[in-house]
Sequence to fold (826 residues):
Amino acid sequence: MRIADYIVITLIAVAVILALRVVIKNKKQGKTCNGDCANCGKGCK
Amino acid sequence: MTLKELSVGQSAVIVSVGGEGALRRHFLDMGVIPGAEVTVVKFAPMGDPMELQIHGYELTLRLADADKIEVSQISERTRKHEDAKDTGKDHHPGLGEDGIFHSESEASPLPEGTILTYALVGNQNCGKTTLFNQLTGANQHVGNFPGVTVDRKDGAIRGHANTLVTDLPGIYSMSPYSSEEIVSRNFVLEEKPKAIINIVDATNIARNMYLTMQLLEMNVPMVIALNMMDELTGNGGSVDINRMEQLLGVPVVPISASKNQGVDELVKHALHIAHYQEKPLRQDFCDQNEFNGAVHRCLHAVVHLIQDHAENAGLPVRFAASKVVEGDELVMEQLKLDQNEKEMLEHIICQMETERGLDRSAAIADSRFSFIEKVCEQTVTKPAVSREHKRSQMFDRILTGKYTAIPCFIGIMALIFYLTFNVIGAWLQGLLEMGIEALTGLVANLLAMAGVNDAIQSLLIDGIFAGVGSVLSFLPIIVTLFFFLSMLEDSGYIARVAFFMDKLLRKIGLSGRSIVPMLIGFGCTVPAVMATRTLPSERDRKMTILLTPFMSCTAKLPIYAFFVDAFFPAHKGLIMTGLYVLGIVVGILAAFLYKKILFSGEAVPFVMELPNYRLPSAGNVARLLWEKAKDFLERAFSVILIATIVVWFLQSFDLRLNMVADSKDSILALVSGLLVPIFRPIGLGDWRICTSLICGFMAKESVVSTMEILFTGAVTTALSPLSAAALLVFSLLYTPCVAAIASVKRELGGKWAWGVALWQCVVAWLAALIVRLIGLAFGVM
Fold:
C-alpha cells in the first residue's frame, strides 16, 4: 500500500468515527435532535 | 333550536351546552356557557365548521359540535361588554411600584443563590415562545398557528444565571383533558416553580384571562405579561394597568414580545416576586351578590371542608375547591376524602346547581367569565376595529370565501410546488449537483494521480461521494419547501386551510390540521413527518404520520418517468396522474382501516381561533431554514454516510470478501436472491429488480440508476408491460426511503418505524398483486 492509501483510509476512518459519534450521541439522547425543540414532541433533557 | 341552525349575522343566547367529557369542558373553557351571547360570523366553504363571535373574540366550531348547543335567537345582543371609561390617564408607573400590591410583612425572601424557576404559561398563539426567546436568547421556532409548542423547554433569563424559565404548551384552561393541559398543570403543581409568568394576549384579554383566573387560584407568585400591547394601542385601545393590578392582585406589565418592549420591566418584576415569594393578593373571585351567592357559598363551603386534605396533598386549597366543584377526578383522588366527606360535598354542589340553575362545570365557568367581564369593563378600552383584523377580514373574503377558498388553496399549493420543484429549488439543486459533480471529478482525478488503490477509490467515489452526494443534492429542495411553508404558517394562512379542509378530513378520522403534512408529503416524506409536530393530539399526529407515505413523493418521479416512457408512452399523462390518484385512494382506504383498528374514536374537537394575518418575520424564517439545513446536513454526514459505506461494501464484495467484478456475485445480489420468491407472484422475480428496490430503500432515485446498471440498459426486454405496471404500483406504495423511516422513528419510536416500513411493503405487494391479477384476467401480459 502507498502512503496515499493510508492517508485516504485515515480520512475515511476519521469521518466514520465522527459520524458514529453523532449517531451514538443521538441514540443516547433517545432522539435525533435537530435543534428544533419548539416543535419536538419529546422534550430536551 | 341549536347553534348550528343560525345563519350568518344572526345572534342568540346560549340556553344549554350538551356534549360530554373533553368536548364539553372545551366548550365551557372557551366561554360557550349558558347565558353567553353569540353571533355567527361565517361558515367554511363546505358549510362546516362555523365561525362565531363570543365574549368579543372569534371561535371556530364544527357543526356537529354546534348542534349540541341549544340557543334561543335574539334580535340584538344585550350584553354590550362596554369599554372602561378614562383608561390611560394614569400612566403605568413601571418599577416604582414594587411591593404595592403585596404585604411586605408577609413576604418571605428566598435564600440568596436559590434558583428562581418560572413557568411561562398562556393561551395558544399568544406569543409565549416569542417571549421565551426574548427572555432567554434562545432560538425556538415560533409560528402564527395555535399549538406550535407541544412540550416544555427550559432556559435561563439573559444576564440572570440563577433563573430557569420553562416554556409550557399553550393551554386554555387547567382542566386535565388534553395532553398539553396535563403537562402544564403537572408542572405547576408538582415541580412547584418559584413563580409564574402568565402571558396574556392584550388584543383578546377576555378569553386569555380565563386561564389567568385558574393560575391565580394556584397561589403561586405570579406576574402578568400583557403581550401585543403595541397592536392594541396602535388601534386606539388601551388598558388601565394599575386598576387591573388592583383587581387581580398581581403585577401586570404591558409588553410587546416581538418588539422587545417592556421585557426588561417584566424581568425585574418576575425576579422580585419570585425572590420575595409575593403571592397573589386575591384568589376569591366569586361574587356573593350574584345569583344569591350560590356559587360563592358553595365554593367557600368546599374550601372549609377540604382544607386539611388539600394541605396534606400539597394542593392550593382554592384551586382544589374549584376543581372539586367542577368534578375533577384527579384532584378528588389526590385529596383522599372519605365517603362521608364525598357525600357532603355532593350535597353542597347539588344545592348550588339547583340554586344557580346551571350544572357544576357551567356554573364555575360562568362565575369566572362574569368576573372577567367586570375586570374588562373597568380596565379595557377595546380598539374600534383593529387594523390587523380589518386586513385579515379583507384577505379572508377571498382566501376563505365560499367559492374562492379551495381554488385559492390549490393555486397557492401548485405555485409553491412549481417554484420548489421546477424553479427555485430545482435551480439551486442543479447548482449543487454541479458542485458535487465537480468535486467528485476533482477527487477522482487526485486519487488516480496519487495511484490510490482501486478498492479505496471505488469506496470513496462510487460509495461515499455517490451516496452522500445524491442525498445532499436534495438540500435546496427541502430548504426551499420549508421556506414557503414557514411563510404560510407565519402569515396565519395554515390555520385557515385547517378551517376549510376540516369537513373533508373528518370523514377519514382526521382533523383539518392534518392537511398540511399530507400536502408536504407530495414533496418529500421527511419534512411531512416533521410537520406533524404542529398537530395537537397524539392520535391525529400518529395517524397523519402513517398516512404521509401514501402521498407519492417527488423522488419517485424518476421511476414513473422511466417506466412510463419505456412501456406506456402513449398514455404518459394518464398513468402518471393515475399513480398519484391511486396513492391517495389507497391512503384513504388505509385511513379508514386505521380509524377502525388502531385509532378508534373521533379526531380532536376542532375548537380553534383564527389568528390575524401577520407579516412573517425574516429572522424567524431564517432561523427555521438554518435549523432544517443543519439537521439535514448532520444526517447526511452521519447516518447516510455510514449507510452508503455499508451498501458499497455489500455491492462490491462476495462472501469470501473478494472484490467482485460483476455485482451479481456480490453479497447484495445473494441477499436479494433470497427475496426473489417473494416478488415472483407479482411478476418481479428477478434478483436485479429486487436489488434495485432494496437500493430504493436508501433513496428512491437510485431504483432507476441501479436498474440501468444491472440490466445494462436492456430493461424493456427483461420486463413485460404488466410487470412494469406492477413495479410502478409497488414503487408507489412500498416503504419510504431510509431518511423518511428515520424521521418516523424520531417522531414515534423504533417500533412504529419498523411497522411503517413493513406495512407499506405489504400494502405495495398486495396492490401490485391485484394489478397483476387484473391484468392477467384481461389477458394482458
Q: What stands out?
A: The first helix of chain A runs from residue 3 to 29. Residues 21 and 27 of chain A are 10 Å apart (CA to CA). Helices of chain A lie at 3-29. Chain A has one helix and no strands.
